[in-house]
């Protein structure tokens, strides 16, 4: 039934491994950049607040496909930005892989930022006021008092963001990143008599990736939730 998988050109495990790598590195980058953005959005400095607000509103409302294409055509082709080693035999593939991660981080960080901002709103104002009364500055209050509680409050929303990121990695296929969606497109073209099996195969692959992620982060959310 799945005889077409014997084709050596169909590296199914390699394609899903690329999806996992895209998700992993993009998730780390998104959490870091999203945390910085939320710090800007609640900052007492007007310029930083304005930048954070403008960035979130612009990138959150821009289609992810446009952002990923821009990283390829705009940054790579037009500006000549190369994020991979020029000596590498897979320089082009590595460059597009890293550019795709850059695009995912730029987009997903906005949702991380807004999730954290909602978490910050759950922290009692009195705690921040007490910290300031003790002489702590804004950065200390944010990093020592507010953000730790905010993160614990929004594990569930962040789980949804990470699951969406995993599924959004399929967009990377438009710039030639060899992840699961690109392989599926190739198989759909070449295996026209097994379309249903191809779709079921890749649907099952994504279910196998998404379910453990959701269960793990759901368990973490219950363990670290803030008791009010």
From TrEMBL:
ABC transmembrane type-1 domain: residues covered: 16-217
GO molecular function: transmembrane transporter activity
InterPro entries: AA_ABC_transptr_permease_3TM (IPR010065), ArtM/GltK/GlnP/TcyL/YhdX-like (IPR043429), MetI-like (IPR000515), MetI-like_sf (IPR035906)
Record keywords, A-Z: Amino-acid transport, Cell membrane, Membrane, Transmembrane, Transmembrane helix, Transport
GO cellular component terms listed in the entry, alphabetical order: ATP-binding cassette (ABC) transporter complex
Membrane topology: Multi-pass membrane protein
Pfam families the record matches: BPD_transp_1
Keyword Transferase: no
Residues forming coiled coils: none
Membrane spanning stretches: 20-43, 64-84, 96-113, 133-151, 195-221
Protein name per Swiss-Prot or TrEMBL: Glutamate ABC transporter permease
Source organism of the structure: Amycolatopsis thailandensis
């Amino acid at each position: 039934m799945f005889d077409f998988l014997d084709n050596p050109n169909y590296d199914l495990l390699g394609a899903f491994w690329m999806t996992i790598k895209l998700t992993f590195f993009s998730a780390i980058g998104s959490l870091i950049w999203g945390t910085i953005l939320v710090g800007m959005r609640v900052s007492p400095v007007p310029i930083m607040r304005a930048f954070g607000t403008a960035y979130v509103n612009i990138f959150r409302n821009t289609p992810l496909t446009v952002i990923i294409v821009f990283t390829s055509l705009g940054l790579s082709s037009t500006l000549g930005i190369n994020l991979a080693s020029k000596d590498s035999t897979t320089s082009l593939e590595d460059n597009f892989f890293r550019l795709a991660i850059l695009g995912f981080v730029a987009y997903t960080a906005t949702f991380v930022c807004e999730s954290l901002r909602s978490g910050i709103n759950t922290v009692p104002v009195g705690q921040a006021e007490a910290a300031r009364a003790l002489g702590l500055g804004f950065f200390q209050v944010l990093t020592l008092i507010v953000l730790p509680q905010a993160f614990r409050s929004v594990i569930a929303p962040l789980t949804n963001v990470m699951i969406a990121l995993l599924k959004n990695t399929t967009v990377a296929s438009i710039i030639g990143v060899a992840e699961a969606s690109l392989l599926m497109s190739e198989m759909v073209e070449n295996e026209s008599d097994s379309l249903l099996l191809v779709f079921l195969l890749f649907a099952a692959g994504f279910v196998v990736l998404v379910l453990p992620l959701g269960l793990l982060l759901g368990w973490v959310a219950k363990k670290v939730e803030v008791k009010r």
